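Collaborator request, handled under Task 6.
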Amino acid sequence: MPSTTRTPRGVRAPIRRRLLEPEPTYSFEFFPPKTDAGEHALWQALRELEPLRPGFVSVTYGAGGSTRDRTVRVTRRIAEETTLTPMAHLTCVGSSRDDVVATLREYADAGIHSILALRGDPPGGPGQPFSVHPDGLRYAAELVELVRSVGSFEVGVAAFPEGHPEAVDLDRDADVLVAKARAGADFAITQFFFHAEDYLRLVERVRRRGCDLPIVPGIMPVTNVSQIERFAALSGADFPPALAERLNAVADDPEAVRAIGVEVAIDLARRLLAEGAPGLHFYTLNRSTATREVYAALT
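Structure tokens returned to the collaborator:
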């Protein structure tokens, strides 16, 4: 039964506890910048979103763990220089068990105790063969168990409303998510999607298996047509043809594209919250405008 007590503002409460509160938890995701200009854009977005007091923010890993050092550095800065609760991504790819433990200790030393445990994409990106490190981990559930064994971390995992690209079918995909919960995961965050029914059916499949894992839907407001089409193709998300037609009709007008993207994200978000989603996780692409517009319409 959800708690009826709100977490005081400014307190870095555990993420799962926030997700069990009666009001929805909003969170934002960023990626480590590659350039000085990118670093500036990231911190500008962080500062513009900080007053919204999100439940947490997360920082991604690149394919094959390629941004590990930048991810650790950015996440540490968020913990040290902002009031935000940071969640660090951690993947199995290209890392031994000792490498993973060393990274976890770096996070713990920085006061970071929330981890999103992912198998991760191969260095070549989605669709390429996954190669296990000789002393590494094959599955996210194994990573969850390792994180749990190292210290007092809370652990999130990934969920896929339309199924993981490598999943045999949606039932098997639900089995994998439940296995991650049984390994010790506290909550899940989904890949972005466009159809509310995909999320609702995922939750139903998981509940039928006797699992009460909180599942937070991921939302990506569309701000760039070619970019979102590329992301959808990589992730396997179904990009609705009607939406693509609307966006392509105004593709030369960035403001019009963003307006449509925000409108669609608001409609999806409202439906998800009305159906009982514990919160919303926004994929910001290190920009704040569209996310702030969606957030303002919901609160």
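The cover message to the collaborator said: "Residues 254-274 form the longest helix (21 residues). The chain has one domain: 25-298. Please let us know whether this matches your experimental observations."
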